[in-house]
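Re: your question from the hallway

Yes, I did run it. Sequences:
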Amino acid sequence: MPHHDLVIIGSGSGNSILDSRFDDWDVAIVEHGVFGGTCLNVGCIPTKMYVYASDVAQAVREASAYGIDASIDKVRWPDIRDRVFSRIDPISAGGRRYRASESPNVTLYEGHATFTGERELAVAPTDGGAAATLSADRVVIAAGSRPTVPACIAESGVPFHTSDDVMRLDDLPRRMIVVGGGYIAAEFAHVFDALGVDVTVVTRGPALLREQDELVTERFTALARDRFTVHTDAAPTAAEQRPDGTIVLTLAGQGTVEGDALLVATGRAPNGDRMDVAKTGLELTDDGRVPVDEYQRTGVEGIWALGDVSSPYQLKHVANHEARVVQHNLLHPDTPRATSHRFVPSAVFSHPQVAAVGQREQDLRDAGTAYVSKVQAYGDVAFGWAMEDRTGFAKVLASPDGTLLGAHFMGPQASSLIQVLVQAMVFGQKAQEVATGQYWIHPALPELIENALLGLPLDV
Amino acid sequence: MPHHDLVIIGSGSGNSILDSRFDDWDVAIVEHGVFGGTCLNVGCIPTKMYVYASDVAQAVREASAYGIDASIDKVRWPDIRDRVFSRIDPISAGGRRYRASESPNVTLYEGHATFTGERELAVAPTDGGAAATLSADRVVIAAGSRPTVPACIAESGVPFHTSDDVMRLDDLPRRMIVVGGGYIAAEFAHVFDALGVDVTVVTRGPALLREQDELVTERFTALARDRFTVHTDAAPTAAEQRPDGTIVLTLAGQGTVEGDALLVATGRAPNGDRMDVAKTGLELTDDGRVPVDEYQRTGVEGIWALGDVSSPYQLKHVANHEARVVQHNLLHPDTPRATSHRFVPSAVFSHPQVAAVGQREQDLRDAGTAYVSKVQAYGDVAFGWAMEDRTGFAKVLASPDGTLLGAHFMGPQASSLIQVLVQAMVFGQKAQEVATGQYWIHPALPELIENALLGLPLDV
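Structure:
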């Protein structure tokens, strides 16, 4: 049985741990799917390439508001798809090649890993054949997550897509049912609608983007209802396909919806449940994560975890941070660093775009925290006028003394604008000093932030 | 002769001085043109509304790069124009009405003011008639600036436009000559080109945007040459109009250029030279500004100045700041505040967009300052991939210890992204702590900043 200094399970964020400082380590990487992880292959990177194409298509559709009559002559779906994957697939292949044959100290196992003991693994090769076993002094579990699919769909025999494959469709369907109400559903609903697909969104919950601040949830859902057919409080109970190919989804108490393609975007589950981690003595958290402490240690000597498989945040920027922490702690076990999950921003690249950092108003209210808030409309600052924006806003939450508690943007450039407030929160700057301590270009969009901060009814 | 507690010359930033704290002051405002100043009527606000419409038109023109074949069916110029001015003109009219008839303590003089003594003025009514004279305990000169026009054009008798009137054209011309190489020329060249006008840019200098960092100047000019007909080192020497209406501009050593409309955008001159300020004992600076100290005082007791007429920055956000300083100093003469011109950002809303703060590389080199720099391409961060951006960049300049010295952006959202670095510079944050001390949403555009900062070859 081969023994390694370090085994990394997963080739996404885990792969980034290895730099030249590990050149004299005997390292194994285990990858059961496409090399490079979710973000590169089926997540952040390709989705945003689609989103941007759809943003452009949407801009064409909305151009008449600015006095520009424009029309879409043709959506070249194969070209969009091939532009994305002709860029991404070679990166994945190059990453694989580098580890498979150009990193002398690294062994790439292509298969699915399950634990057989504390730091012992069996790897069932992806292309079949007998499982290999291996052991290591240290194991990093960076095995990511996977799309979940409700049983009534998974077991129906009806063809369906997830974010893993929907971007590689041969052709655009005429009608698409999107099941789910979170950010993945919101992004793909935008992508396909903007490209001309008739989109129906179906979600069990009462609204879309329920993880956001309540005002974002409410306003985003209202806009989605204007744009798509939206069924809320609608749990799918059955799926069938007619002989003509039409997919029919039955919703509890709400009849049926039809489409030519079905996208399931109901969330992602950490992959720890498929690895027999109990063999190490570990128990998964109630929500299925591999538990770690602040140093990304699992509690079993020599086993670390990071990213979607263990993190409360299924976000690449958090996984990258956790990977850097694990990297340091592998190299410097006597002076370990802790992970920081303070002020983690996130964005939904839908239309409108959404971005958030810190606490939500409902959190503050539920906790009985004293706070003040200001909702500043894009349409009330000069660049928002220019954009003819009528729905976007920035909502800022602060303590009465100006300490920033949360920020929630919905509108153009939300994912860029939020950074100013991430920075302010991290460095402990108060609302009033951020607003008045610097120049804000007139008439640029950050005046939205300036005005939101100035509008807070502080008690100072 | 009426005597006032305060006379404000100009109804732009100067008008914003008056709030309820001045309700028991006898105040006069003198305005010789349209109420509300340059920014509202002929500057920042309307130009950005045109720019955004043109950004949308340009997005349509460039959509095929994303697999979206789109076309512009019609540019409804009258609708674009009327959208802008139906929004702005009522604001200007409302501001005028408020001061003319709804502010009991304010007298609005509509005419051109010239000094007849230290705090004595003659106002020649805009609608003709005899000049009024008035005096005041305090005078605020906030008279702004005006477009300059080279004599060979001004005296030629050939019809020409400036930023004051070009946005109100009856129809789009087929061909437009834009004279000038600064930000106003760059913005209007984009506006009209995107709307379908054949644009020729003529500038005396060797490049466009010469006030920017040398890399921005070089790359922006190269892109402009791809898009417009650009004549550099080309001083106009004569202008004539043919019987068919064609305007012919003769360029020193470079033959002639032709157009159906002529826009002069060669800069703006402070209006102090038209006010006989010498009568107060003041002498204008060599570049024509009313000189002020850090408290916005002119040196003549009781006379302040602010904004374009006196500031080294012809920027509305600076004028607003100076107006707040003057406001405070009028109300609290014994505890005056000083103006801060530290870290003044600015932007050019052309295509690509440009934004800058702090020092330029040529400044640092000329001063012999030790510095390091990093140029980060948009195309090398994930969202830049999505945008298919091939020309944009962020350039960051810092001391070897990480103290930020300057930042220069050229590309999408430049005017938004720069705010992160304005904030960092104002609050004295170093490159390394800004880059690594906070989360940057993956894959949002601020990763451009993160990577620029991480790429600085610091000596720490």
